[in-house]
TrEMBL record:
It comes from Ambrosia artemisiifolia (Common ragweed). The chain crosses the membrane at residues 446-465. Residues 344-425 form the Apple domain. Residues 1-24 form the signal peptide. Keywords: Disulfide bond, Glycoprotein, Membrane, Phosphoprotein, Receptor, Signal, Transmembrane, Transmembrane helix. GO terms for biological process: recognition of pollen. This is Uncharacterized protein. Pfam families: B_lectin, PAN_2, S_locus_glycop. Residues 25-152 form the Bulb-type lectin domain.
Length: 530
């Protein structure tokens, strides 16, 4: 009984061993090659590596694709810019642990992994190349799989798979961004690149050659400011890491039984796609909501784009078009300028603007631990600082981000936007409610011209009333018109509001003193009566 079962067990083990041996071609040993019609397959047969020819081309490339899917979706290409023109190519793992693609008839090496990353490998006695079920092809010394000497995840193609990172190693300076294919049939490096720029506070950019196509902007602790729709979801989680050593973004699958990829298409659109087994096709998971407001700096400096208004460019409050004629003819590129310039006086403060895409942070300054109050002080103390905000809006908020000079590429969102505090001259300051322990008290918005107009109206009202009454009563004029108090003495019932004499008003408001001004309603300034 025991003997039988142990024999059975042995047979099962043998069968399993032979099966796993037959399918264990997920590795490439040192000094071995893969020819054009050979592949290696990841353990669970998710991915396959080998030679392929996209579309109708006669070019041959070494790449990685999803194995089981009816549609051969290539996620990584080795020799994308140096194709082989016939089937005599081969992929070899050298004894030094370097992968090379070469033409066997000439021996020419067309691609080598040694140049694709910072290789510090010396002689490895027995390097192994292995294709993992994540789609990562790693080369390791045969022992330490956790610390590969090379991995395909380190050299991005046009696809971001779960676990891949794009960003910059701040120690080595190695930068990883993804680059579109030239066309659906040509994996050569295309026009569009997507990655992080660390000038100022790091931001994500989609570049069209040397030009910015779209600015995803800085990470605000929860998402990129340019992606208000990026939020926690049941399929994947994501992280943005910024420290002294590195800055990167990556995502992982929460349910690892689904397939997901982010691809940068040859036309410059990025899509997050999810495989649906029922339909056997890739479906859009998160549609990139791209509209005209996503065009970089479309409204110029201090302008903001609002897709729900027409025209969609408007100046931020306190700003006016730099060239009104061009602005009227829907050319907003010149942007806006301050209605009242700054002079760095002590009365300057900040107005709060909500639900925005934060402006370009290239040239900005940041500190990850400062509070918002310290941030305001820091900005106020530097005359060239134009705006500040929290670096990280998660929780109670933390950190400080400062802008200097023009604020560029701002748009408004209906929700999930960020808050920005922009420096304003004293006369443009909003009446703000009590802010985080700020000792600013009540700020008043003073508009001298309006005050003057109101004064004029009051005088005319007085004169009008005065002469009307004079006509009615045919009496002599009061000895001093300023001493005349109209209050409840006229019997004119058509005036619903009590009308005060100008002198009374001047006295009560301390000659319309700015100190007595409370604020401004729809009808003009409101003053406090002593
Ligand atoms: C590597 O392969 C070549 C040719 O296939 C062979 O001559 C050589 O002995 C091999 N070297 C080792 C260390 O296996
Ligand atoms: C691969 O191609 C070679 C040469 O074209 C051929 O001899 C070999 O049988 C092919 N192998 C497979 C598995 O198709
Ligand atoms: C394959 O192409 C190379 C040039 O890329 C050429 O030198 C070589 O002769 C070709 N081999 C065959 C078998 O056609
Ligand atoms: C390929 O090898 C041949 C002969 O060795 C050489 O003339 C040619 O320039 C090489 N081509 C490339 C692209 O390196
Ligand atoms: C590595 O690639 C760069 C450009 O991508 C090139 O300038 C350099 O010569 C290459 N180095 C080697 C050793 O091939
Ligand atoms: C980042 O942006 C700056 C300013 O536009 C530019 O000079 C720099 O080359 C960019 N860096 C990268 C890695 O694209
Ligand atoms: C996703 O969540 C898992 C489990 O909590 C965690 O191990 C992983 O690091 C997370 N990935 C990212 C990119 O945040
Ligand atoms: C994971 O996804 C698969 C396929 O969509 C689904 O059948 C399964 O229920 C999911 N598992 C969890 C824990 O959500
Ligand atoms: C870009 O290409 C992708 C894939 O071919 C397509 O789904 C998308 O609609 C295209 N976008 C535009 C704006 O042409
Ligand atoms: C950030 O601000 C904190 C608190 O003001 C300060 O202690 C720290 O040195 C600052 N860090 C940098 C890099 O400026
Ligand atoms: C103000 O900030 C700018 C930009 O960071 C810097 O160059 C300048 O030295 C600062 N001035 C003062 C007085 O701190
Ligand atoms: C204003 O803020 C201070 C400090 O945070 C607080 O003590 C005070 O009660 C607040 N006043 C009002 C009217 O909210």
């Amino acid at each position: 009984m025991t003997k039988n079962s142990s024999i059975l067990g042995f047979l099962v083990l043998l069968l399993y061993a032979s099966v796993s041996y037959t399918y264990a071609e997920d590795t490439l040993s040192a000094n071995h090659t893969i020819r054009y019609n050979e592949t290696i397959v990841s353990p669970q047969e998710t991915f396959e590596l080998g030679f392929f020819s996209p579309g109708n081309t006669k070019n041959h490339y070494v790449g990685i694709w999803y194995k089981k899917r009816s549609y051969k979706t290539v996620v990584w290409v080795a020799n994308r810019d140096t194709p082989l023109t016939n089937t005599s190519g081969e992929l070899t793992l050298t004894l030094q642990g370097v992968l090379i693609v070469r033409d066997t008839t000439t021996g020419n090496i067309t691609w080598s992994s040694a140049n694709s990353s910072t290789m510090t490998s010396l002689m490895n006695p027995n390097p192994i190349g292995q294709l993992l079920d994540t789609g990562n092809f790693i080369v390791y010394d045969g022992i330490n799989q956790e610390n590969p000497i090379w991995q395909s995840f380190d050299c991005l193609s046009n696809t971001l798979l779960p676990g891949m990172k794009y960003g910059i190693n701040l120690v080595t300076g190695v930068e990883r961004h993804y680059i579109s294919w030239k066309s659906d049939d040509d994996p050569a490096s295309g026009e569009f690149t997507y990655g992080i720029n660390i000038s100022g506070y790091p931001q994500v950019f989609l570049m069209d050659g040397p030009n910015i196509k779209f600015r995803g902007g800085p990470w605000n602790g929860l998402r990129y400011t340019g992606y208000p729709n990026l939020r926690p979801n049941p399929i994947y989680n994501y992280t943005f890491v910024l420290n002294e050593r590195q800055v990167y973004f990556s995502y992982d699958l929460i349910n690892t039984s689904v397939l997901m990829r982010v691809v940068l298409h040859p036309n410059g659109t990025t899509e997050r796609l999810l495989w649906t087994d029922d339909k056997q096709e890739w479906n859009l998971y998160l549609a990139p909501t791209s509209d005209r407001c996503d065009s970089y700096a479309i409204c110029g400096s201090f302008g903001r784009c609002n897709i729900d208004t027409s025209p969609f460019c408007e100046c931020l409050k306190g700003f006016e078009p730099k060239s009104p004629d061009q602005w009227m003819s829907a050319d907003s590129s010149q942007g806006c300028q301050r209605i009242i310039p700054l002079d760095c006086g002590p009365g300057e403060g900040f107005n709060k603007y909500s639900n925005l895409k934060l402006p370009d942070t290239r040239g900005s300054w940041y500190n990850q631990t400062m509070t918002l109050l310290e941030c305001e002080k820091k900005c106020k103390s530097n005359c060239s600082c134009t705006a500040y905000t929290h670096l990280n809006i998660s929780g109670a908020g933390s950190g400080c981000l400062l802008w200097f000079g023009d604020l560029i590429d701002i748009r408004t969102y209906s929700e999930n936007g960020d808050t920005l505090y922009i420096r304003m001259p004293p006369s443009e300051l909003d009446l703000v409610e009590n802010r985080t322990g700020s000792s600013v008290g009540i700020r008043v918005r003073v508009m001298v011209p309006v005050a003057f107009v109101v004064l004029a109206i009051l005088i005319s009202l007085y004169l009008f009333y005065h002469f009307k009454r004079k006509k009615q009563h045919q009496q002599g004029t009061p000895t001093n018109m300023y001493e005349h108090d109209t209050e409840n003495t006229n019997g004119d019932e058509d005036l619903e509001l009590p009308l005060f004499g100008l002198l009374t008003l001047l006295k009560a408001t301390n000659n319309f003193s700015m100190n007595n001004k409370l604020g401004e309603g729809g009808f003009g300034p409101v003053y406090k009566v002593l």
